[in-house]
């Protein structure tokens, strides 16, 4: 349940304070948030938007202040997608193109890191591709220690391997780090029985089981990532990061998006 914001007598209330506040305690202790590259830019445009990145960082700051241990897997599609080289002259091999895409995730990771630190939130940027001059190498035990010390761990470079999506990287890191839930932030507000951008009558699911997802061939994550979550019984929450304070509400346990579990 949400409670209205009531200022103390005589307090000066800024006009931009939301009328609804999120609870002070998170529903999940340790969370893996998967942010696609498009979260760092304006819709339909390439590049990194400073205001979009700041909006994400401000939510993450409040999440950390709630007491959540937060790891973030970042994509790079706003800068470059390996698949864009699959057509045309084919002068760039897919393995090379995928490596270029992984480097793009490091750029987004650097942008998010500096933005969070400008808000006084401690971070560590870790990459599956060794890049010692700009970030730490990904080491599981070190990442867990950072989480335990209250730092936001930003995970870039995918898995360090071509032909693997950032969905798979998120599932892998989620299992390695022992998170309570994998949250997939997208531009849609959950999982539907058909594409809601094409079918205005598409029906949204509030909850799903792994079995139902496979049975109906619903699009939640790529299959290898989904299998990894199912095997570990790792819950998946799919939600629209653009909704008002969506990341905070999701981590606070509000009914948002679509939750996929074993039951």
TrEMBL record:
Catalysis performed (reactions): UMP + ATP = UDP + ADP
InterPro entries, per database record: AceGlu_kinase-like_sf, Asp/Glu/Uridylate_kinase, Uridylate_kinase, Uridylate_kinase_bac
CC terms in the record's Gene Ontology section: cytoplasm
Short name of any one Pfam family annotated for the protein: AA_kinase
Main subcellular localisation: cytoplasm
Keywords, in A-Z order: ATP-binding, Cytoplasm, Kinase, Nucleotide-binding, Pyrimidine biosynthesis, Transferase
Binding site for ATP: 34-37, 77, 81, 186, 192, 195
Compartments it resides in: Cytoplasm
Pathway(s) of this molecule: Pyrimidine metabolism; CTP biosynthesis via de novo pathway; UDP from UMP (UMPK route): step 1/1
GO biological process: 'de novo' CTP biosynthetic process; UDP biosynthetic process
Enzyme Commission no: 2.7.4.22
Domain Aspartate/glutamate/uridylate kinase: 30-240
Annotated control of activity: Inhibited by UTP.
Single GO MF annotation: UMP kinase activity
Binding residue positions for UMP: 76, 98, 159-166
Function: Catalyzes the reversible phosphorylation of UMP to UDP.
NCBIfam families, A to Z: pyrH_bact
Subunit text: Homohexamer.
Family: Belongs to the UMP kinase family.
HAMAP family: PyrH_B
Protein name per its UniProtKB record: Uridylate kinase
Gene responsible for this protein: pyrH
């Amino acid at each position: 349940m949400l409670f209205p914001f009531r200022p103390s007598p005589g307090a000066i209330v800024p006009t931009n304070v939301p009328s609804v506040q999120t609870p002070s305690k998170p529903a999940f202790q340790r969370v893996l948030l998967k942010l696609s590259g498009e979260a760092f830019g304006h819709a339909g445009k390439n590049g990194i938007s400073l205001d979009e990145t700041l909006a994400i960082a401000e939510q993450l700051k409040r999440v950390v202040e709630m007491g959540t241990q937060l790891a973030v897997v970042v994509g790079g599609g706003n800068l470059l997608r390996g698949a864009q080289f699959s057509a045309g002259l084919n002068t760039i091999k897919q393995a090379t193109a995928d490596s270029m895409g992984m480097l793009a995730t490091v750029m987004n990771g650097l942008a998010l890191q500096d933005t969070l630190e400008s808000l006084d939130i401690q971070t560590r940027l870790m990459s599956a591709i060794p890049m010692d001059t700009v970030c730490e190498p990904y080491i599981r035990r070190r990442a867990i220690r950072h989480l335990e010390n209250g730092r936001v761990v930003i995970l870039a470079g995918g898995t360090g391997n071509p032909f693997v999506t950032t969905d798979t990287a998120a599932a892998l890191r989620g299992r390695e780090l022992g998170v309570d839930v994998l949250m997939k932030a997208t531009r849609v507000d959950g999982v539907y029985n058909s594409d809601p951008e094409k079918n205005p009558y598409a029906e949204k699911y509030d909850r799903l089981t792994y079995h139902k997802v496979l049975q109906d061939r619903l699009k939640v994550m790529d299959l290898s990532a989904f299998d990894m979550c199912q095997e570990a019984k790792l819950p998946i929450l799919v939600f629209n990061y653009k909704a008002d304070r969506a990341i905070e509400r999701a981590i606070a346990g509000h009914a948002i998006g679509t939750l996929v579990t074993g039951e």
